[in-house]
Amino acid sequence: MVINSITKNYSYMLAQNQGSPEKIEKGVRGMIDHMYGKHENCDIKWCGFLKDRASYRHTNLPFGKDLKSESLRADLEKLFLGKIESQSKKLSKLASSQANESFNHTVSTKAAKNKHYSGSSSLNYRVSAAVLQKNEGYGYVSKVSEAAGLSPGNETIKRAIRLNGKRDKKSERAKTKQHKKRRINLKKERSVKSTGVEMREGRTYESEIGMDNEQLDEEIPAPMNASLCIPIDISTAPLVVFDLETSSLYRTSDVIQIAATSSNNEFSSYIFPKQTISIQASEITKHTVSANQMFYDLQPVSYKLPHEALTDFITFLSKYPSKPILVGHNIKRFDCHVLYYSLKANQMWNEFSSHVCGFVDTLELFKKIMPGLPSYSQTSLVSHILGENYCAHNAVDDTRALFKLLTSKALNNLDAFVFPVSHPYDCIVQQDNLKSYNEAIACKAVSRATALKASKSNLKLSHLKLSIERMGLEGLKALLSEKTDRGNVRVTNCMKVIRKIFDFLTPES
After folding, report:
1. Residue 327, beta-bridge partner list
2. Where do the Exonuclease domain residues begin and end (predicted)?
């Protein structure tokens, strides 16, 4: 904040005193004194203290108070009074380069830099055209044609009038206070974004940086791009309702039955488990295994081995003309994770992911569109909405009932509830990241909510420490307050929280 204040005051002082070395010398002294509460060298045109001595507070210094550090004052006087003041004559002749930059841009539209026009006879005409456009406006084309005895062209005249009007409006808009504020804010945003990228990447370009691997800096992960989570248009994706029956109630359990239902297709397969089916799971699903035979409700069923059944399921999904969305009840907390572990164990997760657009959990969907129900279990929803009962905890019957429920009530509300296929893997990464914050949470240096948000953003505690090593407190602030592609703050921009984390990671300070 102090740095920004010094920069702003110095820029304004130079702009207001152009052409007068004496005023610049006085302005340099007044700028420093003003920040330290001394206003003898101030001008009532810009000094708020001289206008209202009783209630004046600095608008761009911490807490609105005067600076107190004498060491900082000595450094400022050494820099500004010792070096810059002696160059007041040169500084008084400075002018804005904006007009030159604007003209250079116009020239580049006529004589592009990636073309070798400097060696052609047309260069003089191209630069002359840029000068005419700058001085006369877009109507120069018609005037040149008329001077050469050619028709000025009605369409050319209309186009010139339209473009000149557009340029005039843009020029007027650029002079407004709101537009100037917007330019300043956009510049700040670009600066913050650039700082964040530099801090995350570390050293990427210097002499012989690739010769010694130990010199290479670790790159801190960027915020996850939400627009990349669902890569295709989900409004056209077919819906496939699926359900799993498992050997236990843990995410790492085996799949013992998998079924799927869509508008015109069905899939079902029993899978012989490697793990023992728990008593609790068996009571719920009615699945049992005896010797080498699998039973459902005490009736023998034909089954397949995991790799064969999962291959058939992927083949079933691949036959759709576009990638389907898999829909299920309470899948975000359970079924997706069980399916991930089973596919991962058979080295089939990547192939499965390439054939699926995303997931939808109907438990979240019905809680949103039908708040206040006593129960959101699938059997309760079917009974409440459809007035029907069915054989629950058989994957085939579950998928049929859920598809009927879905098409009768909530088909138009799915888009907002789609989550990416990578969700199970992302959860594992998040849990791994969260473990790195255990000590900080125990010491109350980081709240669990903040640690969880940082973990979801793919940040470990080591990444926060690395940002401090590179850029200190500003580096930590840049990392935690970095904006995502949706415009949200990555973790937090609260300086109280950031300072607490900084103090924990730098106890020597």
Report:
1. 241, 360
2. 238-415
Q: Is the pLDDT of residue 434 over 70?
A: yes
Angle at which helix 306-318 crosses helix 336-345, to 10 degrees, equals 110
| Cβ proximity of 417 and 364 under 8 Å | yes
DSSP string, 25-74: HHHHHHHHHHHTT--TT--TTT-HHHH-TTT---SSSGGGPPP--HHHHH
Q: What is the pTM of this model?
A: 0.64
d(CA 269, CA 304): 7
250's tokens:
């843990």
Q: Hey, which bits of 322-448 come out as E strands?
A: 325-328, 358-361, 418-419
Give the tens place of pLDDT for each residue, 45-86.
888 898 888 888 998 888 889 999 999 999 998 888 887 777
Residues in a beta bridge with 418: 360
Spatial separation of the C-alpha atoms in residues 166 and 163, rounded to whole Å: 5
Return the half-sphere exposure (C-beta side, CA atoms, 13 A cut-off) of residue 153: 16
State the average pLDDT for the chain.
Answer: 88
Please tell me the distance from the alpha carbon of residue 31 to that of residue 17, in angstroms, as a whole number: 13
Task: Find the DSSP H helices in 371-481.
Answer: 378-381, 395-409, 423-435, 438-442, 448-456, 461-480
Distance CA 398, CA 420 (A): 23
Among residues 328, 298, 332, 310, the alpha carbon closest in space to that of 255 is found at: 310
- The vertex-38 CA angle with 36 and 40, nearest 5°, equals 150
Measured between alpha carbons, how far is 93 from 227 in angstroms, rounded to an integer? Answer: 49
Residues in the chain: 509
Of the chain, the end-to-end C-alpha distance in Å amounts to 21
Residue 396: C-alpha distances to residues 101, 266, 339, 390 (Å): 69, 9, 16, 11
DSSP character for 77?
I
The Cα 386–Cα 400 span in angstroms is 13
Compute the distance between CA of residue 13 and CA of residue 23 in angstroms, rounded to an integer: 9
Q: What is the full DSSP assignment across 170-225?
A: HHHHHTSHHHHHHHHHHHHHHHHHHHHHHHHH---SSTTTTT-GGGPPPPPPPPP-
DSSP E strands in 222-338: the ranges are: 239-246, 255-261, 266-270, 287-290, 293-296, 299-301, 325-328
